[in-house]
From TrEMBL:
Gene3D superfamilies: Ribonuclease Z/Hydroxyacylglutathione hydrolase-like. SMART domains: Lactamase_B (SM00849). This is MBL fold metallo-hydrolase. Coiled coil: none annotated. Residues 12-171 form the Metallo-beta-lactamase domain. SUPFAM superfamilies: Metallo-hydrolase/oxidoreductase. Keywords: Metal-binding. It comes from Acinetobacter corruptisaponis.
Length: 228
């Protein structure tokens, strides 16, 4: 498998490229609109064909590159069916699978940060979007977020994976690249070491986070797949 992690510094967003070595088919997970040339250069350099762009959720902090990639490469835009994004090409649900070459990328519905969050599992890795972050998790105070739902999603869909599954999050604000399910299950500050749902809800209700700077422009753009 070909694997590449990209970083967009303004929103601290990680974008992931996965490709099948034999068929040279690729997917991008959470592409950022401003970074299209970076992805295009990498695809050309590695002689890859982009089949799909996957958004883990409707982002509030950056604009998705889904539509720009679709126009340039003819790839399909993939989102959860609860996203309310009508311009998608493929609407997935829990345990839907995307095939590229011999690789199957399995969707796991992990709502709670938003009502349409999806994580993707493939080859000992899980791409968690903003559901599970390294030593944290996505906020639950916007976009139909719900702390109780997020707790259940993380426990049932993510902490049930093997301990050595590598966690690749949608963001990290401290330069960390990845974690593991075992590490997060034991040591995540909000969820680790058997923290109860009641404790988690208490933590999430006292974060006192500022209003998301870009939400008023990013959400309408992302509901249009990132079209200007
Ligand atoms: Fe998010």
């Amino acid at each position: 498998m070909i694997f590449k992690q990209f970083f967009e510094p303004e929103s601290s967003t990680y974008t992931y490229l996965l490709a099948d070595e034999k068929s040279h088919e690729a997917v991008l997970i959470d592409p950022v609109a401003s970074e299209i040339e970076v992805y295009a250069h990498y695809l050309a350099q590695e002689n890859l064909t982009l089949g799909f762009s996957l958004d883990t959720h409707v982002h509030a902090d950056h604009v998705t590159g889904a539509n720009a990639l679709r126009q340039r490469f003819g790839c399909k835009t993939v989102l959860h069916r609860n996203s309310g994004v009508e311009c998608g090409d493929i609407f997935i649900t829990d345990r839907s699978a995307i095939r590229i070459g011999s690789m199957l990328i399995e969707a796991r519905y992990t709502p709670g940060h938003t009502n349409a969050c999806t994580s993707y599992v493939v080859g000992g890795m899980v791409f968690t979007g903003d559901a599970l972050l390294i030593n944290g998790c996505g906020r639950t105070d916007f976009q139909e977020g719900n702390a109780s739902t997020l707790y259940d999603s993380i426990h049932q869909q993510l902490f049930s994976l093997a301990d050595d599954t590598i966690v690749y999050p949608g963001h990290d604000y401290q330069g960390r690249l990845c974690s593991s399910i075992g590490q997060e299950r034991l040591h995540n500050a909000r969820l680790g070491n058997g923290r109860s749902k009641e404790e988690f809800i208490e933590i999430m209700s006292h974060l006192n986070l500022p209003y998301p700077q870009k939400i008023d422009t990013a959400l309408p753009a992302n509901k249009a797949c990132g079209q200007a």
